[in-house]
Amino acid sequence: MIDTIAGTALDTPRPPTVLPRIDPKAAPDQLRKVAREFESVFLGQMLETMFEGIETDGPFGGGHGERVFRSLLLQEYGRTISAQGGIGIADAVVRQLLAVQETQE
């Protein structure tokens, strides 16, 4: 019964991660920080989708613990990838935010 309840709780969708709001006249450093946070959340979501089909059974893995902590691990993977330069999403977001700032001035 516990596995059924835990399985149901794990299958329910989580609320989206809320990113901080930024001032329209924010400094480029603040824009870069927010853009990296956005990229890390995007990468975490992408990795979760990629890992959905991977079975967690086997002699050295699986079980309830792996199901619980997999999403945390994938979020950390997203942060690490973004901190190491990412895949270019943060740079594109910064360019767009700066372009919006220029048109608003």
Q: Could you walk me through the main structural features you see in this protein, from its secondary elements to its overall organization?
A:
- The chain is built from 4 helices and no strands.
- The chain is 68% helix and 0% strand.
- The protein has helices spanning 2-11, 28-51, 63-83, 89-104.
Short description:
Helix content is 68%, strand content 0%. With 105 residues, it is mainly α.
Ends distance: 60 Å
- SSE order, as H and E? HHHH
Number of structural units classed as domains: 1
What is the helix content?
55-70%
Tell me, rounded to a whole number, the average pLDDT.
Answer: 78
- Write down the overall geometry: rod-shaped
The major sheet is characterized as: none
User: Helix tally?
Assistant: 4
Poorly predicted parts: none
Question: Count the strands?
Answer: 0
Strand-residue fraction? under 5%
**Secondary-structure content class:** mainly alpha
Rg:
18 Å
Helix/strand layout:
Elements lengths: L1 H10 L16 H24 L11 H21 L5 H16 L1
